[in-house]
Amino acid sequence: MKNRKNISILNNNTPWKRLLVMSLRNRIAFYYTVATAFLIAMVFTITYLIVESVVYKQFDEKIKTEISEILSKAHITTKDFKGFASFQELDNNDSIDTEFVQVVNMIGEVVKKSSTLSWCALAFNPNQSGSTYFNNSFAGSVVRQAQVPLINPNGVTEGYLIVAVPLKNAIIVLNDLRNVFLYSFPAILFTLFVCTRMIAGKSIRPIERVIATAERMTQENLHQRIALPFHHDELYRLSSTINDLLDRLQEAFHREKQFTADASHELKTPLSTVKGTLEVLIRKPREKEHYESRIQFCLVELNRMAKLIDQLLMLARYESSSMRPNIERVSLLPHIEEVIDRMKGYAIEKNISIKMDQKESVSVAADPAILEMIFVNILSNAIKYSPGGSFITIAVERKSNTIVCSIADQGIGIPEEKINAVFERFYRVDTSRNSGTGGTGLGLSIVKKLADLQKIKVSLTSEKNIGTTFMLTIPSA
Ligand code: ADP
Fold this sequence. Notes:
Blueprint: H1 2-11, H2 15-20, H3 24-73, E1 100-105, E2 110-113, E3 133-138, E4 141-151, E5 157-166, H4 168-203, H5 205-216, H6 234-283, H7 288-319, E6 328-331, H8 332-349, E7 353-356, E8 363-366, H9 368-384, E9 391-399, E10 402-408, H10 431-434, H11 443-453, E11 457-463, E12 467-475
Parallel strand pairs: 7-9
Antiparallel strand pairs: 1-2, 1-5, 3-4, 4-5, 6-8, 9-10, 10-12, 11-12
Helix pairs in contact: 3-4, 6-7, 7-11, 8-9, 9-11
The structure holds adenosine-5'-diphosphate.
């Protein structure tokens, strides 16, 4: 029940959710329009307020002049305000700008008024002390009004002079301005949204091309690339980054394909050799020595296959990054001596001597188990590809904050042009030359992988029929 409730909340197609899932160009247009709407609203409001205040200021000035004119003619001595002119000179019934003038006593009774007011009277506010300007409605229309206290020479307020001017024309102008702003606002926003949507659509067209190319892409057509946009902008960078990624993917995919093909080939060859040998052997009875030599041959092939499978598994483990090196401080010399002890039997069998001159103790930062695998592989190669009676020399040297360990043999060497290729998977310099060595062509690629895992640099120098030297540059601890 609870689950169903959650699902219904997720599926709830609220306008906000719809807004979140709307297309990029709609979103760009929407956000742009919202931001511009705020700006336009602000500009319109400020403009309206400025126009309004300018208009009112003009009316206020007019009222002010009027008041000072009236007051200059008046002489307030008694409460009946005899000193006031009859306001005749203000009467102008034909004019729209006719002023309304009115004098009230302290209790708000109209004492005098201009004929423009006829039977009406302007509103009096007994609580207003100073002279302020405000809008008021009078006889169905809006007026700008001011109310000033009438103070006699003794400083006593005797009444109030109220002056008003009609705002009719100004109000029409202000209303028109407000209507223009109000009606043009949605029209501007709508036009802006449509235009921005169009421009955004045009700008993100390269993204649509990226999507279309990515959708067409499968393992079979990994060679396809996204057409780069004309402008060197962010979309150009996005497209070229995706193209670079596709390059790397294609290469990795090709390598994987090659690896599978090579691995199956390498496994099939010894398998068919063993199968063929056994089939020939079973056809008729043979001498005991013949059986022994053929079985011995099959065992060598099977051992090679077992080694190959082990190495393939190891490579797969490292490539899937399921193995993390456990870096620690390793005392290098005892470590190398242990490896030499392990390989001693094999070296003696081939009458090869392994020498290590270094006696000074050095420590490196490495995973001891992985470091041992690297040494075993390089040393076994040195023994494998060296003639009997030769020497293998191991030297250790400190160079700034690294330790350089070199393993030099006096073996068959590697031709210069093939030196870099020996680290590739399944690469063997000369398959006929190496036949009988039980080599798989995987040893050095594993060495490279293991070295990369712990920031060890592997390099080699070699001269044909003179010897090969492998150099390991290991971070010191
Ligand atoms: P393999 O199992 O064939 O030895 P590796 O990856 O260990 O495979 O070596 C790749 C190739 O590099 C070898 O087949 C061999 O031809 C060459 N090689 C490696 N080490 C030596 C060496 N010390 N002297 C001469 N050739 C070597």
